[in-house]
Amino acid sequence: MLGVRRSAFGVSFFLMKRKRVVVMGFMGSMPIAGVIWQHIHYIVGLQRLRHDIYYIEDSARLPYNPETFEVTDEFDYAAKILSRLAGEFDFKNRWAFCARYLPGNPTAGLSLKKIRQLYREADAILNVCGTQEFKNRQVNICDGIARFSHSAKTSGQEVSPYRRTDSNGFPRGNRW
After folding, report:
1. How large is the average pLDDT for residues 32-40?
2. What does the chain look like in DSSP terms, one character per residue?
């Protein structure tokens, strides 16, 4: 729900209901300056809008380790860099790396159970650059959650960018 307020200078601004937003990307898997900056600006911007932000990497892609110059199935460097960034940019205890390429989907940061809970309960999922592959099991877990992605598709049909939309494609009910 939006509320309009006036500042002391006569400028109007909107108050937005706080949302739980999952930002998905690949800054742990590709920890180079430009990639990290690209993701951090979404996280910080949404935090400044007073939303509860979680960062999740949940991918079948192997991470790159810039210390060894290797792409490897080990994700300890990715976890280390995400933990450090989370401390620096105020999303500590709100991040996860899920190694879907390994049996059992091991995680760092949040547990797999918490990740799946976030997929079900988040108000929105922002898939930065469309880097996270939405498989049928993930789409079902999300149950029609808002997905903002360049490439999110399921069963050959585009995934709606809104949780609930009217016939014109505009959100209904609980608006941003």
Report:
1. 95
2. -EEEEE-TTS-EEEEE---EEEEE--TTTS--HHHHHHHHHHHHHHHHTT-EEEEEEEESSPPEETTTTEE-S--HHHHHHHHHHHHHTT-TTSEEEEETTSTT--EEES-HHHHHHHHHH-SEEEEGGG-S---HHHHHHHTS-EEE-SS-EETTEEPPSSSSB-TTS-B-SS--
